[in-house]
Specification:
- There is one protein chain.
- The protein is of the alpha/beta class.
- It is 37% helix and 26% strand.
- The protein has helices at residues 7-16, 75-86, 92-104, 113-122; strands spanning 25-32, 35-41, 48-53, 69-74, 105-109.
- It has a 5-stranded mixed β-sheet with strand order 3-2-1-4-5.
- Helix 2 packs antiparallel against helix 3 and helix 2 (75-86) crosses helix 4 (113-122).
- It is globular, with a radius of gyration of 14 Å.
- The relative contact order is 0.21.
């Protein structure tokens, strides 16, 4: 789901639509200044479990083969990962990471029209 709404609104709507399990933990990526900040929410958004800052600090990678989590990206974070994957000097990890994010993310929030076009072209 791609929306211009705030991340928590998008997550709530996606939950009501059954886009993820209510028992899923949720990882939300936002871009703060020039860095990515991941916030880890408990099931049902009942609380923040942890926050991680840094482009290379991807908290959900240890769980990549499980199905009990959901990823949400805020527009500027999506753009950050997309541009890194598309850069001429991008390494295989950056390209792979972007593909994993595309495959796992179910909620894209605060997406501008340009971000939505980039998402459609990426899919």
């Amino acid at each position: 789901m791609a929306t211009g709404d705030a991340a928590l609104t998008g997550i709530a709507v996606a939950g009501e639509c059954g886009m993820y399990n209510s028992s899923d933990e949720i990882y939300v990526a936002d871009k703060v200044n020039d860095d990515i900040c991941w916030t880890h929410y408990s099931p049902g958004l009942s609380g923040i479990l942890n926050s991680y800052t840094g482009s290379g600090n991807i908290p959900w990678t240890k769980r990549a083969k499980t199905e009990d989590y959901t990823i949400a990206l805020i527009g500027p974070a999506f753009e950050h990962y997309k541009l890194r994957a598309d850069a001429e000097h991008a390494d295989l990890y950056e390209k792979y990471l972007f593909q994993v994010i595309l495959n796992r993310a179910k909620i894209y929030a605060r997406m501008s029209p340009d971000h939505k076009s980039m998402l459609v072209e990426s899919l």
